[in-house]
Amino acid sequence: QVCVVCHESGAAITCCSRGCDQSFHLPCAVRGGCVTQFFRHIAFCSDHSPEQAVEAVRDEETSCLICTEPLDDGLCFHTMVCPACKHAWFHRSCIQGLALSAGLLSFQCPLCRDRDLFLPNMAIMGIQIPAR
C-alpha cells in the first residue's frame, strides 16, 4: 500500500470508513491529519476523521493553555477544546504530551479538571492515553 501522506510504500493502516481505501504509516498519521483511535484499534484518513462537536467560541487572544503559544483559528485538526468547560484550548501536540505523561488515571482537563467528558472525547479524537 502507498501512504497518502508521504507517498512511500509499506503503509499498513487503512481508513476504516466504508468504501475508503486510503492507507498511511502510523508515524505519518498526525502529519497528514489522520486520526488513530488507540482504544478501538481503528484509524481514519483526514477526509473521514472525527471532529469535535463542541460549540465553543474563542477570542483572538486565546492561546494554548499548556504552551501559551497562539492557536489556529477555531477548531481544526491541530486545535482542540475541552468539551466540558469549553474554555480550555490547546494544541493537539500539547494535549498529547500531557496525556502521555499523566496516563489514564490522572489525565483530565488542565483547566476544569473534568474527566467524564474530557477523557473519552480526547480518546475519540485520537489522543493516545497510556494505561499506567
Keywords:
132 residues, alpha+beta, Herpes Virus-1, two-stranded antiparallel ribbon, two-stranded antiparallel sheet, 2 helices, 6 strands, 14% helix
Task: Give an overview in words.
It is a single chain. With 132 residues, the protein is of the alpha+beta class. It contains 2 helices and 6 strands. The protein has helices at 92-102, 118-124, and strands at residues 13-14, 23-24, 35-37, 42-44, 79-81, 89-91. It is globular, with a radius of gyration of 15 Å. It folds into 2 domains: 13-48, no CATH class; 52-131, 2-Layer Sandwich (Herpes Virus-1), CATH 3.30.40.
Distance between the termini: 34 Å
Morphology: globular
Which class do the helix and strand fractions yield?
Answer: alpha+beta
State the helix count: 2
What's the CATH class of the largest domain, please? Answer: Alpha Beta
> How many individual β-strands?
6
Low-confidence stretches: none
Order of helices and strands: EEEEEEHH
Summarize the structure.
Residues 64-113 form the RING-type domain. The protein has 132 residues and is of the alpha+beta class.
Write the layout of secondary structure elements.
Layout: E1 13-14, E2 23-24, E3 35-37, E4 42-44, E5 79-81, E6 89-91, H1 92-102, H2 118-124
Antiparallel strand pairs: 1-2, 3-4, 5-6
